Structure formats: structure tokens, C-alpha cells
Amino acid sequence: MTPPPHAASPLYLSAPTVAQWIEQQGIATCLRGLCERLQLDYLRWNEFDKCARVPSHSPWGVIELMPIADAQHYSFKYVNGHPGNTLQGLSTVMAFGVLADMATGAPLLLSELTLTTALRTAAMSALAARTLARPESRVMALIGNGAQSDFQALAFQHLLGIQALRLYDTDPAATCKLVHNLRHSGLELTVCQSTREAVQGADIVTTVTADKCQATILSADMLSPGQHINAVGGDCPGKTELAADVLLNNPVFVEYTPQTRVEGDIQQMPADFPVTELWQVLAGQAPGRCDAQTITVFDSVGFALEDFSALRYLYDSALALGLGERLDLIPALNDPKNLLGCLGAQAFATTQPPVQPALRRAA
Amino acid sequence: MTPPPHAASPLYLSAPTVAQWIEQQGIATCLRGLCERLQLDYLRWNEFDKCARVPSHSPWGVIELMPIADAQHYSFKYVNGHPGNTLQGLSTVMAFGVLADMATGAPLLLSELTLTTALRTAAMSALAARTLARPESRVMALIGNGAQSDFQALAFQHLLGIQALRLYDTDPAATCKLVHNLRHSGLELTVCQSTREAVQGADIVTTVTADKCQATILSADMLSPGQHINAVGGDCPGKTELAADVLLNNPVFVEYTPQTRVEGDIQQMPADFPVTELWQVLAGQAPGRCDAQTITVFDSVGFALEDFSALRYLYDSALALGLGERLDLIPALNDPKNLLGCLGAQAFATTQPPVQPALRRAA
């Protein structure tokens, strides 16, 4: 049987192609589309074959693989985290991923995921905040003004109605970059001199710092009743942002408990520290915030399901818009049982002239 | 600091490019080069950060990720196993992989690994046999004559001096294909009517069958003293080729014990069934065969280290020969802390005209 065209030639979306797609759609539309996909996929949580991501640590950072599958599709993301990279002109986080067909194992899509990870992380934060924060939230503190912070700002503006940001970073140049990037956004921007100052009067506090260390960016004495904490930067063993008292006294929500216990801010807590998985709140199976005084904590680390949603969104959009090109990553065989047959005769040339084989049938 | 050129643009080797490279080098040279790399890497076993591969099973087959790293490099392979694929004109096994830099997490190489997996599996089988089989081995039984069998035949010819093959497959068309492909190889080919017949008089018995079931291709009563069993096809939970008595009465050698206990033929045996890791024999830390009468068993499942060796060999060869092209998989940023900055102004357009932000410094 002849395979359908491109059966094993994945579509390829380069970083420039995805950037172009975002420009064409508008970042607000992309964030909205992603958030919708995330919600739909989180609502069918039990249909997924899940595992914690698979890390490889070194003194410089971490490289991770994040696989997940449902009955139809498989996806994985490759992503690194190397805080020292910016000194060499490289990004701290670089990512790409693959969507594949469960029925055949054929890769359907290879895509850049550096830009897309920033978008999906922000869309996920917004989805969690839409579920957990007070609906009237309008002011957000943004602690850590690096590469991911711009996307958080835009997602909370477009998906939650945040109107004002209170910014702080230990590096004033990072805040300067963020202010510059948001200059036409319509957001009211306030540059603060400390985390404590930035947090004052905020409805939502987003922490998105990058240092790979046990840091205490936020402690309970800085917080006010009713705030929602969106803790994005503590996402690796040995990398935390919240003081234990922030976690101890408030309800904590996570993506996938087995992974967050290792990587999230709750890595500081005992193995039986109570948490609620966000999908349970989305599905109405667990309560979110109790009342307007509750301080809610989303201990976000990034879960493979979010990349699955993003890859499917990219794939559907690319097919609909005719984006990308096919990649000859898999040999196209006339006879799939004859892999060697795709090599020309030259491959078999040896220094000795070939001897005719004595082919005989066993007696 | 300006990053070096191509710092985050991996080299891309397509399936046609790798096929062309094999044709130019000759398959014998490629197999020899791979075998040499495998031996060197297995000899530095303790330098690697290892884990069992990460599978995702479905009713149709399996998709696996196989990561591994040393201090300098990280690699992973994506590979599937879908026995029903050939009915749709697709390969049972398709693969690709990535080599990356541990210091920065940047991907260095994205390569096809379908052809390469066939080569490295055969080179690995030959390395194990060179270590475990009787040196005077000249006749090999080849049970299962599918896509991988051709590569096994050529590896054993070129790396071990095998001169004659005794072939059997339940599908005569598969054997026909193999005989055709090897017609100029100089190998003496004997087509047999059963496994039992094929095994008779063989110095080495290679089993490389593909059905995903608990099969008994080979049982102890078929074997003769001094034979080496190269069991390649039993490589997945629920997929075995050897009867328990083949394993019980003979020394069994494996690649990486934690993975082989789950996937290899020894999945049938108790968790404490004694095995020897091949690297121990290569390093002179454990005995191989006792004497010319010993039946040795290599329970091969394929280990991530082998793809690491293959990817490094491909990468070095491609750089030396100028093969492949650069892939813009990662955004090239002027300022790595400013990911959003790679998007044009169009991305921020909204239906509302942008409002000038009220930028003020906190009191």
C-alpha cells in the first residue's frame, strides 16, 4: 500500500516562521488561542499518559525532555535552562519539540518552541490566575523582568484584564528592556526599588526570576490578603523563589504533583505537603480560593501537557495557513521492509572485487 | 558578547544526506567507524549519566526517548516500533536524534537516525560478538530477515569475518529481499525452512524478529556448544525471542541492566537473575566466554549510549566533509534577554488603538 503523501515527513516550523505567525495573528490572539487549548486539554487530564520530565543536570544548567501522549498524539519538548548563557549571547532557555502520530509513530511536526514556550507559559499562568485570582484583579507585581516577563505581562493584560504592572528586577537593565517593550501596550507601568515595594497593592504577584539557587524572593510578611501568587521561576531542583511560610499558610495549586514535588517551590516541603492539581479546580472537582481574603499560590514549573497543547495549536494553525515546509528526516522507502534498498550500489563497494555468492537451498 | 556563528543553529542531516554519506564512505567503513566509537564510549561507561529509555505504549506500538550525557555532550534519540506500519507502506522503526552541548544546552546536530540506528545496532552486535563469540566463527544463522537483518549480515561479514549465512524468516518474501540485497556481498547464503534448520552448524545465531509478542524463536534444544546468541529482536516489554532455558543455562550479557530487565529477553526471569554488562567484559573487569564449549547470550535491546556514539560520529564526519545544512530552530536574538524583541511591531497591534503607558517611578 502506498503511504499518504508526507506520511513520515514532518512539517517544520522554524523560529522565524513561528515569529512571523505570531506577528500575523497578533500576540493577543495567539495567547487567547493557546489558553483555550490549554483549558480544553487540562479538562481531559485523565486521558493523558503522563510522566515527570527527564532532566540531565550539569554544573552549567539542565537539559530536559518532556514527553506526553493521549490516544491520538504523542509530543515531547527539548528544553534547556542555562542562566550563564546570556553572558555568551545565548538565550537562557532554548526549546524545540515534536508532535507525532500514536498509531504509526511517525513525526508530524518539528517546531521551534523557544518563543512558543514563553507564550504557553504565560498563557498557562493566565489560565491559573483566571481560575484562582480575584476576578476584579487589575494590578500585578512582576518580579524578575527577564525574557519571560514580557509575555507574562501581555498574557495577564489580554486574558485577565490587568491594567497596571509594578516592576522589579535586581538588574535595572532588565526592567528597562521590559518598559521599552511594553511602551505601546497601554499598561500602566511602575518601576519599583524592591520586591517588597512592588508587591504592595498588587492583586497578583508574578515571580519569574532565573537564578538557579535556593532564593527567597517572596516571604509571607510581604503579602496582603486576597493576593494571588503566580510563582513561575522556581522550576528546578535547588531553584526556588518562595519562603516556606508563603507555602505553609496558603492553599497551593500545582500542574502535575509528582513533577512539582521535585522541581517546584514545594520541593522545600515534606513529601505529603497538601497541594491541589489545577485541573481539579478547572473540572469543578476541588475548590479554588475560599474567599476574597485567601492568598492563593500557583507553584508553576511547566508541564509537558502545555507543550502538547501548544504543538497541536501550532500544527493546526500551520496546516490551515499553509505555513512551514516538509523535512526529509525519515527515509522514504519503496518497500518499508527493505531499508538497505535505499542505498545505492556504491555503498557496497569494497577494496576486493565482489565474489558471486553461492546461493543454495539447504538439503 | 557575540555568540560564535551557528551557536544555536543545529546542523541538519536529512535521511538522503546520511544515505549519501554512507554511499560515499562505503557501508563497511561506516560500520567499522561506528564500532570503533562504540568501543571507545563503552570503555568510559562510568563517565555517562544514564537512564532507561522513556517509553509511551499504545495498542499499535511504542514511541521512546533515549537520553544520555557525558560532561561535554548530551544526546537523545526518538524512535518508534510499530510492527503494523509496513501494511501502510511505513517503516516499523523510524528514528531521529539530537546532539547538544552540555555547557549551553544548545542543539549541535539534528539527524535522521533510521538508517543510522540500523547501522549502529549491527555494529553493536558485532562488537559484542567480537568480545563473546569464538574467534574462528565463520557461519551465522540469521533468524528474521526484515529491515535490520541486512545490516547485521554486513556488520558480521566486515567486522567479524563471517563468510556464510543460514537464513530463515516466517515470510519467504523477507528472505528473498535479503538474498537479493546480499547478492554481490561475497557471503555464502543458505535459505532454510525453519529456525531449527538454520541454527544447525552456525557459530553465531542472530535473532532479529519484529513481532510484538512473547515468542519463542529459539529454545535450548536447538543450540550447540560454543555458539554465540545475538538476540536483537526481544527489546520491549511483552516482546521476547528466547525460551527461558536458553537464558537459564548460559551466561547472559547485556548493555544496561536496569533497561534490559524491563525490555530484554531477561524480562522473563526473576529480578535478581545474574547478568554481566558488556562494558565490564570490554574493560577486562568481568570474564566473557569460559571456553570453546560455552554458549554465550547477548540480550541486546539497544542503549542510548550507542546513539550518542553514532551522533558524535555523524557530527564529526559531517563537519569534516561539509555535509548538511544549518536549521533556524532557535531564535537568533540581538539581546538574549529580550526574546519578545524578535517580534515585529505588528505582533502587538490590537483592535483598540494603543494607549500611551503612564510610566512613573514609585514614590
From TrEMBL, chains A, B:
Domain of life: Bacteria
Parts forming coiled coils: none
InterPro entries found in the cross-reference section: NAD(P)-bd_dom_sf, ODC_Mu_crystall, ODC_N
Pfam families: OCD_Mu_crystall (PF02423)
Protein name (Swiss-Prot/TrEMBL): Ornithine cyclodeaminase
Organism of origin: Curvibacter microcysteis
Lineage of source species: Bacteria, Pseudomonadati, Pseudomonadota, Betaproteobacteria, Burkholderiales
